[in-house]
Amino acid sequence: MKALILAAGEGTRLRPYTADRPKCLVEVAGRSLLDRQLDVLGAAGVAPVVVVGGYRAEMLPRPGIEVLLNPRYATTNMVTTLFCAEEALAGGALVCYGDIVYARDMVEAVLASDADIAVAIDLAWEAYWRARGEDPLADAETLRLNADDRILEIGQKPSSLDQIEGQYMGLMKFSANGAEILRSAYHGAMAQGSLRGKPVEKAYMTDLLQHLVDLGHRVQAVPVCGDWVEVDTVGDLNLAITRERLQRIQAKNQT
User: Whole-structure pTM over 0.90, yes or no?
Assistant: First the structure.
């Protein structure tokens, strides 16, 4: 299955490290987030890889990957970036954010799901969020599941930890049928001029996933616990836990 890596944003919360490069090319321990993610995808046998860039996209090309562009990256959000690669969605794809790195077993778990739309969620998110900041609610999102791990709610602002049964990571799979469901929902929202009450161009992926839930589609959680990182701020970049997790991810790729 192909992978689509969404990497168009400017990464303003990582200034000054993103002053001269896209967010996914910020380095941790001498190696960029993108190259680390490509290592994991290669170890999991995921190919080909398409990277959708925007800010400083001329720095993205690597052997064996295709680079597409979101020319409106400065005024749009994740959903628009994804659909700049709409043709690449055909037949299904693994969709990943450009500022994360995850262990190979997490990719394999998502790919093994029989659901048309499968979304990785971290059950052990709270300890990781507390390591990244004093208040885990400050940068977390709601996620509620039914008894079969089907997602009922995702991406809202939580008022308590009870509203978070796992944390969305930015790693998901759409089968061929799932990609068609996604495309239909997106074009329906475009025709209506909004997605869950906001302009489609400003919508996050969680808005689109919640829209699919609202339409009655099965959006299946794939619960995981383990090593992954999100590097969204300078604080994330400098945390010891970021380096520790990346070291373990690298070791898993080599086994």
Answer: yes
Give the dihedral of Cα atoms 61, 67, 70, 73; nearest 10 deg. -30
Q: What is the CATH number of the domain that holds 188?
A: 3.90.550.10
Q: Which domain holds residue 67?
A: 3-248
Distance of alpha carbon 64 from alpha carbon 131, whole angstroms: 35
User: How many distinct structural domains can be found in the chain?
Assistant: 1
> Residue 253 falls within a domain, yes or no?
no
Q: Which residue, 118, 141, 120, 119, is CA-closest to 129?
A: 141
Residue 146 CA to residue 100 CA, distance in Å, equals 27
Contact criterion met (CB below 8 Å) for 136 and 129 = yes
Cβ-based neighbours of 227, under 8 Å, separated by 6 or more? 102, 103, 245, 248, 249, 252
| Residues with Cβ within 8 Å of residue 144, at least 6 apart in sequence | 151, 152, 153, 154, 163, 165
Is 170 part of any domain? yes
Closest CA to 220 of 205, 209, 229: 209
List, for residues 199-224, the tens digit of each pLDDT value.
Answer: 999 999 999 999 999 999 999 999 99
C-alpha to C-alpha distance for 109 and 33, rounded to whole angstroms: 21
Q: Tokens representing 108?
A: 């394999």
Query: What's the residue count for the chain?
Result: 255
Pairing of strands 151-154, 100-102: unpaired
- pLDDT tens column, 99-131: 999 999 999 999 999 999 999 999 999 999 999
Residue 111 lies in a domain: yes
